[in-house]
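Collaboration report, partner site 2.

Our partner group contributed sequences for two proteins of shared interest, and the home lab folded both. The records are reproduced in the order in which they were received, starting with the first partner submission.
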Amino acid sequence: MSEPINSAALETRAAELVDLARKAGADQADAVVVRGRSRSVSVRLGKVEGTESSESDDFSLRVFVGRRVASVSANPGFDLRMLAERAVAMAKASPEDPYAALADEARLARTIADLDLFDPTEVPTEALSEAALEAEAAALAVPGVTNSSGAGASAGMGGLVLVTSHGFSGAYMGTRFGRSVSAIAGEGTRMERDYDYDSTLFFADLRASAEIGRLAGERAAGRINPRQVDTQKNVTVVFDPRVARGFASHIASAINGAAVARKTTFLKDSMDKPVMKAGIRVTDTPQIRRGPSSRPFDGEGIAGEPLTVVEDGVLRHWLLSTSTARELGLETNGRGVRGGPSVNPSSTNFALEPGEMSRDELIKGVGTGFYVTELIGHGLNMLTGEYSRGASGFWIENGEITYPVSEVTIASNLKQMFMAVTLADDIDRSFGTAAPTLAIEGMTLAGK
């Protein structure tokens, strides 16, 4: 990408907006600019199918009049005074919200940490096309691969400008580069699909296009001629890291403070209780240098501290923004993110920390089971924890991965799944949600 766009002008405009809101009658206010720049190329069967480019600076103003709050959004070029007056008028007509407020002034970040999130590398559109074409060609060269679902490459940057009426002003930017390919193996009704991708903050850290394509092709070819297996209970299911990251995201959702406040999570009454096996740790760390989801401050101006949200299997923290913390009688831990005008809690660099055995040792210890490489559908109820997903992967016999399996369903309840996890040591921290290969005992498998 080019050099970071100077945010000073946007900070000045946001500060003017906050000042005008105060003059219009707001007791407090904050203004946010969410920045985005991106370019992407998609290809299929050796031809460029599309190129996309986008730029945006989306402004949001939030105002407080007593216990009443309102938010408005606008694109660049809007009239500052008109927007501020509109927001205040909306707040005066809104019902009271006892929990909405700016973050405690004493908690605001006083310095903006440099987390090395921006790569100035400029990647021309032609280079994106070449990378996508190379990845697809490598996939098509794998024996057994018969077609392509397409490949892509992208480069972008995004960030946040935040100004509040009680003294915070800051901005940060980060970059993101990506490559992906999806390959098809087999013929007719026996075709199988698989994929590979990579996404990094720094261009030099991307895996080679040829490697991504080769791995996607090998994965697809390895799934040819799948079998079905008999319906059975008490199956040990092993989640490939690609799938395990989704399992870790269920943990993050279950401990989200907004879900706790709404009572829509099955862990709502589990604080300071065992929710996973003894010895298991789950962490959330906002300020990892070059971390994929790092940020120097959250959407309310707070520099969040590292949290061990699950320690030795015991739940120790919710993910909290200011409003959800107030509703729960707690203090924010700096996990607020801006979703347009609103602020909601979310994870940062979230990790289901690894165990001590290797992936091969874990699979060998399973003996007989099911190794999942892909999940289908959204059969998850966060209120009850009920879990049911279509799945494909490979059967494990005598501690070895053997033949491919498809058209099965795995089911259990997340409460039991959380308590039945065994972790390998092969965590990949290049994703915002990270988890190693993991095994879950006692699941039900519905097959033929």
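Second partner submission, folded after the first:
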Amino acid sequence: MPEFHTIDDLPADKRVLVRLDLNSPIEDGEPQDNRRFERHAETVRELADAGHRVVLMAHQGRPGRDDFTSLAGHAEILADHVGRDVGFVADTYGDEALAAIDALAAGEILLLENTRMCEDELPEASPEEKAETAFVETLAPHFDAYVNDAYSAAHRKHASLVGFPLTLPAYAGRVMETEYEANTAIATREFDGPVTMVVGGTKATDVIGVMDALDETVDRFLLGGVAGELFLRAAGHPVGHDVGEMDLFDEQWEKNQELIESVLDERGDAIRLASDLAYEGDDGERAEVAVGDIDEKATGYLDVGAATVADYEPAIRESDAVFVKGALGVFEDERFADGTVGVLEAIAETDCFSVVGGGDTSRAIEMYGLREDDFSHVSIAGGAYIRALTGEPLPAVEVLEAAAKRQ
């Protein structure tokens, strides 16, 4: 169990500063609704219904990027999910923000402007340094408690994540609590049967790190995506390199070749590689080729093939636990969703403990009509999920645990 306090421990009638992660795709300048709003709304609604004065912080994008925008639109989307008005102030800790915070009545909700518009927020630094920033020192005295619900940002040492727990009583929100428990289960729970991990996606370094760290915990790995193709290359197949304008494989191979080869050598019996791959044929339709029939890579491979899915399904169905990190193909294109969706369907139909992680992969559940309730947990975290799987510390969780010991 986590060693931090949760909002179950929060005394009544408090002015509460709550950190969410509402970072969203931006289209035509507007934030797009997604699972994060729905999940965080549970914490926000619970706090407001209990009569707390609820002030929210969140970030969007990074300075210099196209998705670095105001949170005004986020307030409207969140209000729809919470079922209550969510006020917005285009200020974070200036006079306008402080006046709006102090004017809140019980049960009212206010969202502050993008935390990353404050220069104190972004540079990674120790919690002690962050606690001494003007951002934290100005805002904290206006609150009775701090709640962190932003598990997906918990691997960051930013002021809004690690500074406030040093100056205020600190608690975990519902997203923080459920994500932490599910994502650390691979290290903390005992499973009676085989533990399987499905690993894919485009970031091979992450996948290899997870495979290396979970050497003793996972019984078998089912590979796809960029990482899967790089492992096929290590096994001697003429794939796993860039063709045309592609820029996915060669650099990652150069950085990870030695580790890939050593993991394959040491855990080869636990690693299952794709037996066929899918690509776009001359007619624009999906085509498949057996890996053994590939003489040279002349096109990009966009999914694992039907034979691979058929090979992976029995391994999933006899598992006691299945963890997913990354998609097996470019599922956003319906032609190349078969691998990812086929594996997710097998997991959904299996009576096992299951966690689907990596922000993008969880989108496939919604896109292809699968039921979220058929999985034990669908994570909205990316980097923090990787950290949890590899056992690396999460700074924002560590400060919550330290705060619990002080309280």
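Feedback sent to the partner group on the second submission included the following. The radius of gyration is 23 Å. The first strand starts at residue 15 and ends at 19.
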